[in-house]
Design a protein that fits this description.
Number of helices: 0
Strand content: 35-45%
Shape: rod-shaped
Largest sheet: 4 strands, antiparallel
Mean pLDDT: 90
Distance between the termini: 116 Å
Low-confidence stretches: 245-257
Length: 295
């Protein structure tokens, strides 16, 4: 094999005369900007033809961009993306800026070469992606690129302030501060945290509707959700309610907070001795049993 002719195409056909009979291949070394290199065309010259027309076709390069959740692989909307050529140089050019929705974004007639996909702003509920370098190949008419975002991940633990143990039985709400929307209601499970994926950045409040049995209700706690890939962990605590043994028993009053039970005359208010009082837990078991005195 040897090269018979080499030329650069113009807007008019190339005329070649005097080809000897035989098999020839028309091959494109580089395509016009924005087009994929055409496939080689093999043709025969017999010498009997008066004129032979050979056509090599080019297709425009089509680049499809998909924005997806890195965990679920589902389409993601709400990102502002830029396609940049010569990124990081004095010749940096923004080729295209677009707002992602759940459909595929297509660029047709884009020139072959290296580009940078940059996220100007992340989709709500997702951590920003790092710059992504891509290469548009010169010999492929259709090329697809998948751009991933990691959803923001949050973990909320309900723990005992006394032991650090994760508590069950608390009824909690996560409220978004900017509009008061309740993002989720849940009941805490012993030994387990509550997991959230895709929360928008911003201020939230963890509100306790009902405390775990035997614990004081906690005050609302504000948290700040950041736009980051790392897991964000929050711990909200409850402290035990402590009680005294009451009057008339042998159990001394504990140090710190306690509760006193009295039996009184309904008219005079005088404390009465000799009444047996039983306090039951929510499950029906006896928490305390004792006899009152006048102290």
């Amino acid at each position: 094999q040897f090269v018979v002719y080499e030329w650069e195409s113009t807007g008019v056909p190339k005329i070649i005369k005097g080809l000897q009979p035989g098999s020839y291949t028309l091959e494109e070394l580089s395509a016009p900007d924005g087009y994929a290199v055409g496939r080689p065309v093999v043709f025969e010259v017999t010498g009997a033809e008066e004129k032979l027309q050979v056509t090599l076709e080019n297709q425009k390069i089509q680049a499809d961009f998909e924005k997806k959740d890195s965990l679920s692989q589902k389409p993601v909307s709400g990102a502002v993306l830029q396609l940049i050529k010569h990124a990081g140089t004095d010749q940096e050019i923004i080729v295209k800026e677009c707002f992602s929705d759940e459909s595929v974004f297509t660029l047709t007639g884009i020139g072959a070469g290296k580009y940078m996909v940059r996220e100007k702003s992340a989709p709500p509920g997702y951590a920003p992606m790092e710059d992504m370098e891509i290469e548009i190949l010169p010999d492929q008419p259709l090329q697809t690129f998948t751009i991933l975002n990691q959803p923001i991940k949050v973990e909320i633990e309900k723990a005992s302030g006394d032991t650090g143990k994760l508590l069950g039985g608390a009824v909690l709400q996560l409220v978004r501060n900017r509009d008061g929307a309740v993002i989720r209601d849940w009941t805490s499970r012993e030994g387990e945290a509550e997991h959230f994926t895709g929360l928008e950045k911003g201020a939230y409040t963890i509100r306790e509707v009902k405390a775990p049995s035997g614990y004081k209700k906690m005050e609302p706690q504000e948290i700040q959700i950041l736009e980051q890939k790392e897991l964000q962990e929050f711990v909200v605590k409850n402290y035990k309610i402590s009680h005294s043994g009451g009057g008339g028993g042998d159990t001394p009053k504990p140090k710190g907070e306690y509760m006193e039970l009295y039996k009184t005359d309904g008219v005079t208010g005088e404390k009465l001795a000799g009444a047996r009082i039983t306090v039951y837990r929510p499950d029906g078991s006896v928490y305390f049993d004792g006899v009152t005195d006048k102290t």
